[in-house]
Amino acid sequence: MQLTSYGSDGMQPPIDLIIEEQMMPMRDGVKLYTLIVRPANREKVPLVFLRSPYEGIKPVYQETCNWHYSAFKSGFGVVLQHCRGTARSEGKNLTYQQEEADGLDTLDALCALPYSNGEIYPNGGSYLSSVHLSYLKHAPKCIKGCVLAVQDDTRYRIAYRNGFLKIGLHGSWFAKMYNKKAEKNYTDDAFRMLPLSGFSKAVFGEDVPILDNLLMHPDENDPYWQTQEGGGNFVDALNRLDVPVLLFTSWFDIYTGGVIDMWNRMPAALKAKSALVITPYDHGYTGGNGKTAYPFARLDDVWKDCCQDWANFAAGKKDTPDFVELGKVKYYSINEGKWITADHINEGKTEKIWFLNSNGSLGSTADTGEVSYLYNPFAPAPFKGGCCCNFGGSQEQDPPNSRYDIKSFISEPLEESFLMLGRSHVKLTIKSDCEDTCFYVRLSRVHNGIAYGLRDDILSICKKHPDYTPGTEAELDFMMDEIAIRFFPGDQIRLDVSSSAWPHYVPHTNCKGLFALQTQAKVAHNTIITGPSALILHTEA
Fold this sequence. Notes:
Layout: E1 2-5, E2 15-25, E3 31-39, E4 45-52, H1 61-67, H2 69-73, E5 77-82, H3 99-111, E6 116-125, H4 127-133, E7 146-149, H5 155-159, E8 160-161, E9 164-165, H6 167-177, H7 199-204, H8 209-215, E10 245-250, H9 256-265, H10 268-271, E11 275-279, H11 299-302, H12 306-314, E12 328-333, E13 338-342, E14 350-356, E15 361-363, E16 370-375, E17 407-411, E18 418-422, E19 425-432, E20 438-447, E21 450-460, H13 461-464, E22 474-479, E23 483-487, E24 492-498, E25 524-540
């Protein structure tokens, strides 16, 4: 089939294209739908490679041709493949598990095409990035450059935060993706069942080992996370490459901390030819879909055709990429409207400390008191937006102390401006009448009386104090992921403390032991000791 591309606006000089569809066979005989589009005037072409489990990438030929105009203009072909068991591909989709073998088989097939020049450029965001991370540990020689967005290489962090299952990803997303063409009985409330080990039978009508086993291993140090089922084949996969890698994340993406950690773990030689970009958005990292709240932040405005520009650089078609500096992080400083280039995300050089006081204030001095509340795991406290650990990004928060089990601490209006930079943390001294429970903290910026969620963290007592005695005081230290955001005079800082965050995390039962096997839950009476409890922000003037 032949078509002509006129660009996404339909106004560019025409490029004649050849379109080919294949049902590409994998090693076990399953065939995957693969669409290959290439310029008609090229005998041999490098290939931009995308794999997707979503029906969004489908054979709408003219739309596909127009969308990838910049690739064709640069002399590249584009490969779009449906993952196993999704859309037009055969087989059963088992999330994550088949992508390594299917990806390697597809690379071999693509390199064998008579019009391929043997150069492949993987591209994708979120799960479309995971499919490539699954095989990059093999460092295939045909890979000459990568663009990987909004995805972590550590499966534990994708699934858990300090032992708490993240409902957003392994809830509705997993339920939708697993055995995608089958019916499911899923709502978020399914995560309230006890024991949670019965989840798969209730939702899918069958045992699902890739989820059932995950529920049994909430400890990041468990050897399970080094197995292939636990994502061990993903970890540090990039570090075996010797080609330019472009990473994207956003300050309010579910994978913010993980992508930054991937960058920090890169070997110096690889980092020197790579770059990381951090936008101010959420999982929709480009700023598209009408997201224009941040000036000069949308990738279409500051680095149009960024993915193809990077491919051109990696292919040697240009000496340096646009917008970024090699070996550097380019991040957007929220509320400053500007992009900053740095080696990595440094902590601010100054610590600002606000103490939690019994009257609900955040102050420069500490009082001696207690703030107590009842936590009922059968009625978990709701919070809007996932900040940077779950989906939903930064959203307007409910009023302070909106429920009996949410305690809000608020500063006086700020007198001076400062930049919150890097990781900050919360130190709580607490006690409970249960042998185990959890505490949740959420940091917000209050601007013109409206609170916007920024960062959060969750931690159980037994995570740090395995032999906790009910009624005794204990210290918990919450570490929040990196951010760069400026506070202005008149702004306020708000810290909410609770013991749940629905629908982001599975509610703690207030019982000790492996949560997936617990058959009962009970009410806890939890207390914050306000004297030593404090919020510590790393800042710069």
